[in-house]
Every structure is written in structure tokens, then in C-alpha cells.
Amino acid sequence: MKKSCRTSPSRLCLGLVALCTLLAPPGLFALTPMGAQQGDDIRLSRVIDLLDGGEAVFGIISSDRSLNNARSLARSGLDFIIIDMEHGPWSPETLRIFLLGMTDRQRTAANGHLQMAVTPLVRVPQNGVEMMSFVVKQALDVGVFGVMFPMIENREQALNAVSSMRYPRPLSSDIREPNGRRGRSPGIASWFWGIGGGAYYQSADVWPLSSGGELLTIIQVETPGAVERIEEIITTPGVGVIFIGPSDLSTQMGYGDNPGAPQVEQAIQTVLAACLRHDVPCAITTGAASVEDRLSQGFRMVTVGGDGGITAGTARALGLGRSAAGR
Q1: Is the bond into 208 cis (omega within 30 degrees of 0)?
Q2: How many CB atoms lie within 10 A of CB 200?
Q3: Contact predicate 216/47, CB 8 Å
Q4: How confident is the model over 201-235, as pLDDT tens digits?
């Protein structure tokens, strides 16, 4: 795969934190679990690590928050899971339990770094026009590595999404805008990430606006208005991925449950072309019949299944996608 021009030149944040840990008084910084060290070239977020290197990533959207599903997906061979709390119940408590179920201490100890094999992301319930920040704050405070925002239609809504994910940055920062509105209570998230609160504050910013950021802002384009205003949405600072929702887009355009309609595909290609122009990863739902075509078109983030875990169809789509992407 062609390497992205957005690859960060250095990843010094965690190294600086480690240096500060050595020099600081005992107890000022939390140690990583089991003595694991975070390598200079290994990010906490696997999906950002791969996207930052120009690779394609594969995952599923699932509303099954059972512990068995969490354990299964943690070793599934996927790159990410989008935990669906738009069409599934909004429940931070079950989200917290699910994330703990994805914690694979054996893998952490064996690999010697903190990057999870499968990056947990969450789709929140509010549509873009509702602009509710509290659900975003609660999802991030539990420890997810990114948030997907449904039904974003313009720049104002995209800015609200980015701002709700960011902490206000220090006066010395050159990336204080868009202004962060997230309140600080990092205890659970930093514990889940396996780093101290200070390191969490530094890392919990949106990529690629912050080159060392470990949070992904995913904007869903699902309406004709969003397609028409894709340029203003995609150029909003802090937007990490544009995710096209073919089914909702088809319904919103008046074609019902027919995402294969030529007019819908034309809208999809309009959004994809904008992503390619601006070097912003574009995402879409796929299956075994479509994943190779979507990757060849330039999509960089694809889902290959849903609830039910790694079914035969999901495994086939994942295998075809990895082969097509050279992974």
C-alpha cells in the first residue's frame, strides 16, 4: 500500500512521559501494567497506527456487548470494532464491562506493549443536528479510542463532534482549535489504556490534527445534504475518517432499501473522490461480494460483518480484504 503523506515524523509523547517518570518523585506517574513498555513506533490505537501508515483496516459493527463476544473479538484478527450504541441501547455501564472483557492481559505480557489487537470504537446515538456532548464524554471516559457520529450534515456539526472529543489544550499548544469542550475525569480511561493520567491527557487528542493523538473522530455521511456539503465537512480540522452509510443514504435519497441504486452509488463516489483529494481515509460497509472492489476504489476502512461475531461470511470477507490490501 502507498504510504500516507500524513504519517507523523515522530512519536515522542510517550517517550517523554517515560523520561519524566524516571525523574519524578515516586507515585507521581502510574506505571504501565506488568512492566510493559510502549515502543516508540507502536501507538496505543492499532487502527490509527495502520491508517497513519497508509494501510487499510478491517472491522465490524456490533451491538452485542456480552463478555463472550468481547473475548472472541479481542482475538478475532480484526483491526477494530465499532460498538453500536446508536441502534443498540445507550449504556455506558455495559460498555465499560465490554471493554474490560476485551482486555487481553496475556497478549499484553507476551508483546511487551500496550496496543490492543482490536481497537474499540463506539457509535453514539445522537444525530449530528442534536449536538449532545455528554454521550461523547461518557464514552471516552470509559476508554474507547474513537467515536463515530451519525447523520453529520455540515461543518458546524462536524466541528461540534471534534470539539466534544478534545480536552482544552494548554496555552502553549499550537493546535488549540477547534476548542476542546471535554471535561476532565480520566481515571477509568487512563486505567483501561494502561497509562498515567498525565500521559492520557497528552495522548487523548484527535488524529491527525494532533500527530500523536490516539482518538479517532469518525463522521458518518448518510444524507444528500452531507454529500452536497462534503467539502466543508471533510476540511473540518480534526476529522479523521469519513464513513459512508449506504443504507441510510439510500433511504434519505428516497430509494428505500436499495443502496445499489445508481444514484446512490454516484453519491458514494462523490464522497470518496473528496476523501481521496484531501487524503482523508474513507470508510464503508462491505461483504465478501464487495470488499475487494471497495478497496480497489480507494476505501481505507471497511466493515466486513456485524453481530454474530466472526461468521463464515465475515471470515471470508476479511480474508478477501486482507489479500486485496496486501495484509
Answers
A1: yes
A2: 24
A3: yes
A4: 999 999 999 999 999 999 999 999 999 999 999 99
3-state SS, the chain, equals: CCCCCCCCCCCCHHHHHHHHHHHCCCCCCCCCHHHCCCCCCCCCCHHHHHHHCCCCEEEEEECCCCHHHHHHHHCCCCCEEEEECCCCCCCHHHHHHHHHHHCCHHHHHHHCCCCCCCEEEEECCCCHHHCCCHHHHHHHHHCCCEEEECCCCCHHHHHHHHHHHCCCCCCCCCCCCCCCCCCCCCHHHHHHHCCCHHHHHHHCCEECCCCCCCEEEEEEECCHHHHHCHHHHHCCCCCCEEEECHHHHHHHCCCCCCCCCHHHHHHHHHHHHHHHHHCCCEEEECCCCCHHHHHHHCCCEEECCCCCCCCHHHHHHHHHHHHHHCC
Q: For residue 233, what are the contacts with CB-CB under 8 A and spacing of at least 6?
A: 152, 153, 154, 155, 158, 219, 221, 226, 239, 242
Find cell 486505567 and name the residue: 191
User: Which residue is associated with the grid cell 478534545?
Assistant: 166
Domain boundaries, the chain: 13-322
User: Check: CATH 3.20.20.60 for 13-322?
Assistant: yes
Question: Closest Cα to residue 258, out of 248, 266, 269?
Answer: 248
- Tell me the three cell numbers of residue 325: 490490501
> Measuring CA to CA, how many Å separate 296 from each of 46, 118, 285?
22, 24, 14
Length of the chain: 327
Cβ atoms within 10 Å of 68's Cβ, excluding its own: 10
The grid cell for 150 is 451519525
Residues paired with 148 in a beta bridge: 123, 218
For the chain, which residues score pLDDT lower than 70?
1-40
Which residues does residue 61 pair with via DSSP β-bridges, in sequence order?
82
Residue with cell 482490536: 118
Q: How far apart are the first and last CA of the chain?
A: 9
- Model confidence over 72-109: pLDDT tens digits? 999 999 999 999 999 988 999 999 999 999 998 888 88
